[in-house]
């Protein structure tokens, strides 16, 4: 593929995917080496507070990835978590732009909890079009290209199309396995709002929790990218987070959408798209949704005689947003 391509066609994206998968696997080796080393040192730095962690490996992996991308695709732009943290703020343009979290799940990485990954998304004309998420601890590789499906490759096995099994109907939140995250903002306003939301998601309405949905259970994998991938594969019904960033979700958005998942922004975005007479597509990931730091991802749901899968996803999204509170991320 020409590095100066003005238009990216599906066939070009396949070649970008081949490159990106190779890069993810090289980065994965570095992440594993780092994990061994970090267990025996206390070399962990803090960003905005003592739970917002960064290690020399986050920085090294991002540097490696950035320089390999610059060699292979010199005209592509780059947005990376660690570059952003150290002050490089690239605007979103129509140009092909890699959006990268070198280690998503840094806290897991530091603690040796084997759910950390590299997340490499490609944005083109301001929408995510390609995603690669690689968890080197489990050797799980998730890939997706807009219009070409998404896949999970475990070890050296053949890629499996996502979702892994035919999706089942989702009658209500009560039947759901949900993923949420505490995030790194531990201030009173954010945390009380989040814990009130979690209380209503889990709580028994017949035993004192007003508005409780008593969902089957709640999980936190500690990595936005892996939460989204697990929704795409069908292992979680839904994932919600306020406060993460485009590099946490960009690759996952493509993987989830290609698996029939719905990616929805904030309470306000859903309300605007579903209000009477609205012409907004509630399933479209606009730049505002991509950068909005509020994400709700719902797995594929099949059509039934009573409602389409899309209607079911909207029903679940509406009920979810009636249950949880909106809060502004720091
Ligand atoms: C993390 C996310 C996680 C979220 C954290 C943080 P990092 O990314 O994936 O789900 O709760 O706030 O954003 O910092 O490990 O790359």
TrEMBL record:
GO terms classed as biological process: inositol biosynthetic process; phosphatidylinositol phosphate biosynthetic process; signal transduction
Catalytic activity, reaction form: a myo-inositol phosphate + H2O = myo-inositol + phosphate
Annotated metabolic or biological route of this protein: Polyol metabolism; myo-inositol biosynthesis; myo-inositol from D-glucose 6-phosphate: step 2/2
CDD domains membership: IMPase (cd01639)
Amino-acid positions noted as binding Mg(2+) in the UniProt annotation, renumbered to this chain: 81, 101, 103-104, 248
Any GO MF annotation of the entry: inositol monophosphate 1-phosphatase activity
Co-factor(s): Mg(2+)
Alphabetical keyword list: Hydrolase, Magnesium, Metal-binding
EC number of the protein: 3.1.3.25
Enzyme class: hydrolase
Organism domain of life: Eukaryota
Gene3D superfamilies noted in UniProt: 3.40.190.80, Fructose-1,6-Bisphosphatase, subunit A, domain 1 (3.30.540.10)
Family: Belongs to the inositol monophosphatase superfamily.
Record-given protein name: Inositol-1-monophosphatase
